[in-house]
Amino acid sequence: xxxxxxxxxxxxxxxxxxxxxxxxxxxxxxxxxxxxxxxxxxxxxxxxxxxxxxxxxxxxxxxxxxxxxx
Length: 70
What we know:
Layout: H1 2-25, H2 44-65
């Protein structure tokens, strides 16, 4: 009976060591690094729409001022 207890203790120790080593080998690594280039946000959409509206208004004024142009 004394030998059987040592065998169980050995098995328990072996399993504990196995689980410990396995869990240490599977630890994930997460790295958070800032980007090398600055973040740019393209705001040309609104600017483009404003320019088109202004050009259209100017074109209407020019056509009204010179009706025989076309």
